[in-house]
Amino acid sequence: MKEFETIIGLEIHVELATSTKLFCSCSARFTREPNRNCCPLCMGMPGTLPVLNRKAVEYAVRVGLALSCRIERFSRFDRKNYFYPDLPKGYQITQYEYPLCKEGYFDIDTPQGIKRIGIAEIHLEEDAGKLIHLEDGFSLIDYNRAGIPLIEIVTEPDLRSAEEAKIFSEDLRNLIMYTRASDCKMQEGSMRVDVNLSVREKGTPDFGTRTEIKNLNSFRSVARAIQYESERQIRLLKSGKNVLQETRRWDEAKGESVPMRNKEDISDYRYFKEPDLPAIILSLEEIESVRKTLPSLPRERMERYRREWNLPWNDAKLIASSRALADFYEKTVQYCRLPKEASHWVTGEVLKKLNEKKLVLEESDMDPKFLGKLILLVKEERLTGSVAKKIFDIMFDTKEDPEKIIASYGRITVKDAGQLDQVIEKVLKENPKAVADYLGGKKKTFGYFMGEIMKETNGRADTALAKKILEKRLAFLYNNNNPIKEG
Amino acid sequence: MTLSNMSVKQIGDKLKKKEISAVELTKVYLGRIKKEDPKKECFVTLWEAKALRQAGTFQKKQDKNGLLSFLAGIPCGLQDHICTENLSTEAGSVILKNFIPPYNATVVEKILDRLGIPLGKLRMSEFGMNPDPIQCGAAQSVSKGWTVYSLGSDVFGSVSIASVFWNIAGLRPTHGLVSRYGLIASSSLDQIGIFANRVEDCAAVLSEIAGQDPRDPLSASFTVPDYTTYLRKGVRGLKIGFLAGAEDDAKVFEKQGAEVKEVTLSLLSYIRPIYDILFSAEASSALGRYDGIKYGYRSSHGNNLSELYTRSRGEAFGSEAKKYVLAGTHILSSEQREIYNKALKGRYLIAKESEDLFTHFDVLLMKGNPKEDDLCLLPALTGMPALTVPKGSRSENGFYGIRLMANRFQEGLLFQAGHLYRSETGGAT
Fold this sequence. Notes:
The structure holds 2 protein chains of 2 kinds.
Chain A (H helix, E strand, L loop, with lengths): L3 E12 L38 H13 L3 E2 L2 E2 L2 E4 L9 E4 L6 E10 L2 E14 L3 E4 L5 E4 L6 E7 L6 H18 L11 E11 L9 E6 L2 H20 L7 E6 L4 E7 L9 E2 L6 E2 L2 H9 L5 H12 L3 H8 L2 H14 L2 H19 L3 H4 L3 H12 L5 H14 L3 H11 L4 H14 L1 H8 L5 H12 L6 H18 L7
Parallel strand pairs in A: 12-13
Antiparallel strand pairs in A: 1-10, 1-11, 2-6, 3-16, 4-5, 4-15, 6-7, 7-10, 8-9, 11-12, 13-14
Chain B lengths: L7 H9 L5 H15 L6 E4 L1 H18 L9 E5 L26 H8 L3 E6 L14 H7 L5 E6 L3 H9 L2 E4 L18 E6 L2 H11 L29 E4 L4 H9 L3 E4 L8 H16 L18 H12 L2 H14 L4 H24 L2 E5 L10 H5 L3 E4 L12 E5 L4 H14 L5
Parallel strand pairs in B: 2-3, 2-4, 7-8, 7-9
Antiparallel strand pairs in B: 1-3, 4-6, 5-6, 5-10, 9-11, 10-11
Helix pairs in contact in B: 2-3, 5-6, 7-14, 9-11, 9-12
């Protein structure tokens, strides 16, 4: 029985999060109002000239550096000529011969361990507009997207399975969001993945004929499309047929890919140097100054969390996957000095709450210092875990200091002195050794009693009142030198 | 002295002294145009009301601030591929029928800011691709005395050819000196040019329209001088290289103290094929935006997308445009790539040879020619400036004046030599 392996390379288009477009000063922000962000240049009107947005170069360089690419000190633009109504000038300005970034790599975590995926190049280009096909056969064009800066990240054919491709795409997305070069919103089309796939008999050196699959707008479709296409090609080869070199379109609803155009239809794009734009020349200083804007990246952070703070792999990976989450986590640790506890909170309650409220961390306005404080309160046994969770819920909504919440929370609940007295009596009775310690001079035990009282009352005891009564009780015991006997 | 013979400066003086008002002046020019060009063969659009309004504005501002610029109050013309905001700009092509750009070319903005008075838009061949001087409304308008100066463009050497044909002065500035924003170009070789009766007018106009433009990424950061200060510097001590055929003209300079020497260009025979290849390639791409979708002409016979494209372009492009689109598409195809790459290399070598030449000479002198020749394409390939100077007296037949070239940004030298030539050959100064 022949065994086949699947060879996958990805081409990932990412819209850069610049405030303006690549070659004009139109807003690059997403808007639902058609043709709102348009000017003569992005409408392809004659006589207009492209002026390069240097911010886009900076963002692309950021991604290039994050992917360990060589940043080219000389790169330039080319024209890719073809006709389509969403392409206002009849050509796309892209980088063909001299891309901005080359020869990088990205390490991903596969179930078999870390795998290095080569990045062939990253080039800068402008996006096209969007066609809206109406049911009556007419089509409308929205040029809002035309001219938005894109980077195209081209991988080496190093991926071998749907799972690897999915992990790569997800990790890449996290990495790019780290650099703040893009928001990578797949549903808004700011990240698009094309798959190049071929299969070959295991052990043979040559690649088979490859197909390209487009229209993948979720990581799930990337994985499904690869699975489908890989099986389709293997089936063809096993039955003695050939794979045709073609571009296929993924139909998510049907769960299959259908041919879009074959090799004969592939147009000759007549690439040539864009004569209206000067080359992009970058100095080493410029590249280094961009490097300085990069934060510590996911892998580095993840390894640090594991090494220095002993976090389990899953937690470290999860926290490091988002810059905001990792920053939040680190700030929490900075305050409470309890990395393990902080990681439990961040991967547990924090994420749960964000999910529930459908918020991202940046939107939640949570103060890591307050979470740190809450963690310390639990550590000091002034709160039980379950109470702390309740406090957290309130804290999430009110953004208040947990101490303040506890104070007000306590007052409205158990401030009945009689009830508290009973609880305290019970606590003292159940902990004769601690009482003896206290009476013997170990004043620290006071905190322990307070913790026990909180536990008994589910944290609902009024701290000040409880303290007062406890002091009274202990003083009474001390004065009478009458330790409570067992039984 | 009649108005039609006056220079930019002379008219400026009259305006300053209030011997004539800008409104009167504009009326004289408009009247002449309406009388002598009734079928709008030269002025495809005449902006009567707008021009008079601008003249009125000029007068009001003049009373407050005096004359501010060489161009203030001066009637001029714009070739129809220079974009004018909210005013028809068709570039001589049916495909841009009724195209009204929502923006001004930078040169138009400069003229308007300086209270110059554009009278309207001038006829041209389709995208200026045919250098037939008869079709060059910008040169014609100046020659006929319908404008004091006009802006056109240099495609296939048209500035030089038309200037000689219409016996006026014409300047193609250094690439990057005058913003190309708003010029409907078919290639990056196209450049805005200045037509005027005199060399000194070209100098005055260039001083005002040149300068770096943030909207043109290839415009150069260069401090623009007052080019009129070069006019009377003479040529003493200048080194002038001349090409065969310009011996008599060289003597004019030699008599005034220039060092003259005959030179040859070894790559001369490559100039035209290289220009043709680069121009066609770029034009095939630049004209891709005219697809019948967004603006301009759209065929009513397109039943599907591909038919809409082929019909719109097929029906509206003229033979020149079609020729270059076809040639360029072929040249850029992956099979023929080598041709394009070789042309780029050739262009580099030609530019290099010219640069080397200008390490030994200040100015290159050649004979004027009212027809296409290879040399008229040299400025476009090298990015260097060229000035065509009519002989001072118009009466002589068969004597076409001269063409001068200098190194990049050396327009001053051209004005120095050109002005001297004109006065030495009996021209009004």
